[in-house]
Amino acid sequence: MTIRVEHLTHTYNKGLAYETKAVDDVSFEVADGEFIGVVGHTGSGKSTLIQHLNGILKPDAGRIWIGDIDITAKGVKMHEIRKRVGMSFQYPEYQLFEETVYKDIAFGPRNLGLADDEIDERVREAMSLVNLKFDEMAERSPFELSGGQKRRAAIAGVIAMRPEVLILDEPTAGLDPKAHADILSMINSVRERMGGIVILVSHNMDDIAATTSRVFVMDTGRLVRAGAPAEVFSDAGYMRGVGLGLPQATEMAAMLGLDGEPGAGVGAAAGETAPGTILDMDGLVDAIVSARIARGPDAIDGTPRGEEDRNGATRDEKGVGE
């Protein structure tokens, strides 16, 4: 399965005074097995873009291929495309409506006309993939679940369709830190076990850096950058210029001047380099240790032996390391 988008354009309120071009001449390709992150400020066109990939929105111009099918062509059966491209919207728990978790997850497969035993197999598989225990959760009302459990149940309903492309729009939004981490871990697990393409839309740069293999940056409806996380987040000034930040570890490394070019700190302008290879806290710790080692073998506290600190005391006088 591959995705190919050519010159996609979509305009809201076309012909009216408040006409808005939400997606403007966007082209890209996604290979099978890729994990794509889509980032951009609010109103940049992220959600409008992904809603074209399973036919929820129709483009004003451009073409989209899902595998070898041009879904913008006349006569294409979109319900067949939506079997292959599953989408979980932001706050998907608001879409839960059945009386039990089992029935909610089974809703999609049942609409495919599958036999009961096939539906049961898919529900059990999906619940296992999202770490919901079947014996404990299947007969519970979805409205009795915690926020994180509701999110899992809603995503399980998409997974039960066994899509070849899984699109997740802000799946961790509004969750507490533990539920946030659990959902992120679940997404990685689902990808490893299901394969195919995963597209993650998020405002959380740490999530994007930790999970994705390639990042698309949207700004005012255009795809302005695409590349590996280390490449995209290496240009601190550019990212700030389009209203985005950096992963926390990358931001801290830039402030400390670790492994970057001069001027790569907080005030960096577009084109100046931040330490793009430092994307997580483990990498940041390694960089700090390396920087201290470079000062000298005894620079444990940042003051090499024999050198004075700001107060005029040497490391030996302070008794460090004794």
Summed up, the helix count is 13
- Look up the CATH topology of the largest domain: Rossmann fold
Can you tell me the number of structural domains?
A: 2
Name the overall outline: globular
* Rg computed from alpha carbons, rounded to a whole number of angstroms: 24 Å
What is the terminal-to-terminal distance? 62 Å
| Name of the level-1 CATH class of the largest domain | Alpha Beta
Task: Based on the coordinates given, report the CATH architecture of the largest domain.
Answer: 3-Layer(aba) Sandwich
**Strand segment tally:** 10
CATH 4th-level superfamily of the largest domain: P-loop containing nucleotide triphosphate hydrolases
| Beta-strand fraction estimate | 15-25%
Q: What fraction, in percent, of the residue positions are helical?
A: 25-40%
